[in-house]
Amino acid sequence: MHSQPTGTDVAADAEAVERVRERRDALAPALGRTWTDGEPWRFITDLTAIGSRMAGSDGERRAAGIVATAFENAGLADVDVEPFELDAWERGSAELRVRFPDREGAVREFESIALPYSPAGAVAGELVDVGYGTPAEIDERDVEGRIVVASTTTPPGGRFVHRMEKFGYAVDAGAVGFVFVNHLDGQLPPTGSLTFGGEADAVAVGVSKETGAWLREYAAGGSVGRGGGTGRGGGAGSGRGAADGTRDPSGDAVPAAELVVEATTIPGESRNVVGRAGPDTDERLLLLAHYDSHDIAEGALDNGCGVATVATAAGILTEADLPVGVDVVAVGAEEVGLLGAEHLVETVDLDTVRGVVNVDGAGRHRDLVALTHASEAAASIAKAVSAATRQPIAVDTEPHPFSDQWPFVRRGVPALQLHSESGDRGRGWGHTHADTRDKVDDRNIREHAMLAALLVCEFAADERDAPRLDPDRLADEFRDADFETGMRAADLWPDDWE
Q1: Minimal CA–CA distance to 222: which of 243, 256, 248, 252?
Q2: Given this model, what pLDDT does residue 232 score?
Q3: Is this structure's pTM higher than 0.90?
Q4: Does 251 score more than 70 pLDDT?
Q5: What backbone phi and psi angles, to 5 degrees, belong to 127?
Q6: Which of 98-102, 107-111, 173-177 is predicted with the least confidence, judged by mean pLDDT?
Q7: Long-range contacts of 246-252 (CB under 8 A, 24+ apart)
Q8: Measured distance CA(411)–CA(475) in Å, rounded
Q9: Using H for helix, E for strand and C for coil, what is the string for 175-187?
Q10: Is 71 helix (H, G, I), strand (E, B) or coil?
Q11: Quick check: helix, strand or coil at residue 50?
Q12: In what order do the strands lie in the sheet with 203-207?
């Protein structure tokens, strides 16, 4: 998840560029083999053939074994699988229906899927369209006792507002249910966790764009101006028409929606898969990618491509002359709250971690994006590798808390997150039934693995200084990016940032 690249004033350092060129030349045999390597395609084929890799599931356990084998084949040392406990969410059924008070017995049923960590339950109430679901739009509407309808995307020109922020803010404002509407065509209801690692406070489902268009038409008080729904009765006011709440401003009776979710949250187990490249030094770099996915698809893009990129980069790093060790980690349970990364951060000595490279989103599309999370050193590394290889790497300096670098960044560890640019906002096929292997072009995986290896090598260089992130400045960066309101609603704002 990221917004459009924000750019940076950091220029490529000439000495760093020359270092990268020298390493590129030294690693030419490994890089050349990677160019035509068939192993990334075999790896992602085996991974996606499992089906669901939902956190805590048998599929995720099997995937950990496939990753461990790939790490061993790449030549990593001390490969191990480290289990940890979590609250595992299991999907049941979901029902969404709309009843029409002007037509006795008239009911419409719509396809929906529960969002992870939705509790089991049933709610009823009027639908209210909050457009993109930003806090400002929710503030414009009367959502008390209603079921909120919000888009998966956000307005152009600003940062991407995450699902957890929308849900948390709507529930805090009194919503009793949440409907997440895909902004892409194709009858594809989206999924995605509502919280980090625990059961949420209200029922929630995802629905397709096509279903969302109907729901917006049935919503009380009309649309707030987001394209895709015609609204009822016009206006972007509070939405309450008659005093009894049964009619919209046009005088039409407002349909009543019913939302029913069956789901369970039970104790479970996930795993991190770890291996080591380079010397066994006290100071370490961490190279991460999550290997879990949501249970409604194969998870080929999110994050099969990312963990395939890391496994491929690992094979290059084992042939590199690294001055510090690199711990290569495939983390579990990212999709339900960065739980593998949270476990990792509690089990390593952070004072010995120079930095983190998190591969979440790389390998999917042609051009690499480096999210540098307020670290000037990370931005400089990306610029140097881009210049030395004549490969475009867009730099996005804006931080965000929704991937596995976050547990480290909030503790001051500098980080790079490697994504790739699709040209569109949002997740695309990700988090839908369409996230399947046929969307993958493994040329992107191989090329991004080569760049990731060079980025890690430059991060590890003796000459490279990577200062810790100042907590006050980091908090200001998040405030400047307009994250505070949404992160507080999602219960993600760190207590020591008060």
Answers
A1: 248
A2: 32
A3: yes
A4: no
A5: -80, 145
A6: 98-102
A7: 246/101, 248/220, 248/221, 248/222, 249/221, 249/222, 252/102
A8: 11
A9: CCEEEEECCCCCC
A10: helix
A11: coil
A12: 113-114, 203-207, 177-181, 147-151, 127-129
